[in-house]
Amino acid sequence: MTGSVVQSWVRSSAWLAAIVCGSLATATASAQDQVKPGDARHGKAISYTCLGCHGIDGYKNAYPNYSVPKLEGQNPEYLAAALHGYKSGDRSHITMHAQASTLSDQDIADIAAFFAGKPLVSAHKPVGTAPAAAALCVSCHGQDGVTIAPMYPSLAGQHTDYLVRALMEYKKGGRKNPIMSGFVASLKDEELSQISEYFARQRPALSTESRPYTRLTVDRSHE
Ligand code: HEC
Ligand code: HEC
Description:
Elements: H1 3-33, H2 40-45, H3 48-54, E1 60-61, E2 66-67, H4 76-88, H5 94-101, H6 105-116, H7 138-141, H8 160-172, H9 178-184, H10 189-200, H11 215-220
Antiparallel strand pairs: 1-2
The structure holds heme C (HEC) (2 copies).
């Protein structure tokens, strides 16, 4: 090959690379374009059914009996990931699967933005001392239960019985997240209870979404 042929070969491969990279970049951008940043106002408008359970403090799941999780104060990224988990079946729960299945990806982003409200900010003042079995857990979920990354759930102030239930589900396979299944596999049931109690005590705490409207208040407004 003469020098000029090599040069033109190098130039054309550079072009090829540019074209391939360019089209990849376009493909990625258009996939992201499909879901716009969550619109909390639209999320609120489509959350009526959800608030029938998530908007009542202390509301219980029947058979088995445990508290419906608090959502306010989580990060929207985590709430969206959880909803996708119920939709795909990575998390098994009949009602939540039915609920999430009716939502588009954009609805999930919008509803996650609404329920998250203002995500918790750590005060770096853990309440009490974390049980020894929670040594690893705090590296992701925070010493005070306020998560260190938006894709992980905050656990601070969550209902103890819900935390126990979730941990048992990772252990028994009802929830298939490989990270969590690995971490809980070796823990005893008693340790899972102690860890759950510790995180449930932490502040600032997650809370139950207040209901902006109920059937009763709607009906009364016409009186
Ligand atoms: C009939 C009651 C009920 C209704 C209605 C309901 N949920 Fe749930 N939700 C639950 C229960 C119970 C769980 C816990 C399920 C489990 O054990 O994994 C849950 C779990 C969740 C979680 C996971 C929370 C976490 O900490 O991981 C999210 C997010 C959620 N629901 C959002 C919604 C949204 C959005 C709607 C409306 C489209 C909705 N839920 C409707 C009862 C309900
Ligand atoms: C590497 C980071 C990491 C570590 C370490 C970790 N977790 Fe998690 N945890 C996650 C992620 C990610 C999820 C969400 C999984 C899913 O999609 O269901 C999660 C979910 C949970 C949930 C469910 C919360 C909810 O609202 O449903 C509980 C409870 C929990 N973790 C407790 C623990 C405990 C206890 C430990 C230690 C034994 C632990 N985690 C260690 C990342 C971590």
